[in-house]
Amino acid sequence: MNAGAMRAEQPDSELYDWGEIEQSLDARGHAVLPRVLRPEQCARLAALYARDDGFRSRIVMARHNFGRGEYKYFAYPLPPLLQRLRQALYPYLAPIANRWNREMGIDAQYPQELSAFLDQCHRAGQTRPTPLILEYGPGDYNCLHQDLYGEHVFPLQVAILLSRPGDDFEGGEFVMTESAPGGQHAEVVPLMQGDAVVFTVNQRPATNRRGGRRKVAMRHGVSVVRSGKRHTVGLIFHDSR
């Protein structure tokens, strides 16, 4: 990856310990990347939500039983900052995704570059961009869910918190749940403004008590916002139908 593509707009992703990130994804299904965006970048992205241009659709979550709140899908071309970030993170995540698929017996391997993967999506009729921005107000929340949009699904995605916990909003924690034959549990992932969380879209491999491999189903959501406004950007790497 050309690290210089990111350096002017956000921290160099080569500064992150990707071995440690991979270990966290293997063990817990998620990993935090601190300070991916600066405060002024977060504010600039959050301000886009009030605009009508640059988006392909707006979803009111209560109408679809998704929770409360709303979100907008960006149209192509994406904002340059998000386009660079999506392209820069994907090559680090593709080898993890490929290994996971091998371990789970899934016959799908992802190319090293995002453009090649999106070409696969588009040939399958998945041509609509999936990066989005979410807005929550008091009483809003996001039900536990998985973001599956078609035949081609990249097993990892990224959410970046644009707002300041404790200042811009209260509550609204990012939550992940894990379901496996041995039981279920939930985990709150603490995030500060500008932090990103990389997390499992659907399933990840895990080791059972006998040392064999099994699939663990993961879901994510957001707890109830008690006050203020919470904005988040979601970077999904597969496009949708």
TrEMBL record:
Keyword terms: Iron, Metal-binding, Oxidoreductase
Q: Which PROSITE patterns match?
A: FE2OG_OXY
Q: Which residues form the Fe2OG dioxygenase domain?
A: 127-240
InterPro entries xrefs: DUF2086, Oxoglu/Fe-dep_dioxygenase_dom
Asked if Phosphoprotein is a keyword of the record, the answer is no
What protein family does this chain belong to?
A: Belongs to the iron/ascorbate-dependent oxidoreductase family.
This chain's protein is named Fe2OG dioxygenase domain-containing protein
- Organism for this UniProt entry: Paraburkholderia unamae
